[in-house]
Amino acid sequence: MLRTLNCQMAAPKPLHASHGSGGASPRHVPDDHPIAVVRSHSLPALVGRELTHRILAGELAAGAKLNEADIALRLGVSRGPVREAFRALEAAGLVRLEKNRGVYVRELTSTEADEIFELRALLDDFAGRKAAQRASAEDVRALTAMVQRMDEATRQGDADAYFELNLAFHDRIVGLAGNAKLGELYRRLVNELSLFRRASFEHAANLPRSAAEHRAIVERIAARESEGAGRLLREHALASRERARHAREPASAHIPRRPRRAPPGRPR
Known about the structure:
By secondary structure, the chain is mainly alpha-helical. 61% of the residues lie in helices and 4% in strands.
């Protein structure tokens, strides 16, 4: 079930008149108040954020058809904002719009994923070098805290939490690079790959390896080893490609074959 966007409004606090110059006193609402949320985000953007969350969480599966009227009904909005959200999601690489057929969650072929992983590895190298040059002590502490939370998610076997932390970790590093165009391109590639690689996080053995790679990356950034940080991020992207490939192989491919038994009467 998609979450409704209808906001439950708390009872408003009484407003008091100003006793100073006679003008109205400034009125403030907290950032998480429904009015503040709607003020800072358009309705299509809110619908897009909700659908993005559902797609990246795997709740709307790759290849699934998205029904405009159904989504509008479930979210409690008109069809216009949903239609606009679909266009934004297409631009972000998460859905495909097919004329006279409808809107579908995008599916990535293995070949497309390989091409994106190769490009992402190059961007990761660049971002890692820049991050090591620009990161402050506070930035390093934030990255370290993310890795610690990854370790905790690994111990608990919480693949969903790990997946979210992984996205936040790499987004933080790209942000530290200080290149807006890099951020736009990188986030689109990450969105597209999320459709392909989420299954790799469901394999428990992959989480400790991935967490260890993240720890090593933070160590290089903290030491301001620009070349080393870039190299480790590039290698991490390529290792992620191999984990994603392995996760998508048929289950039978991971079952070791038993040696054939010799026919009766023949020496073994």
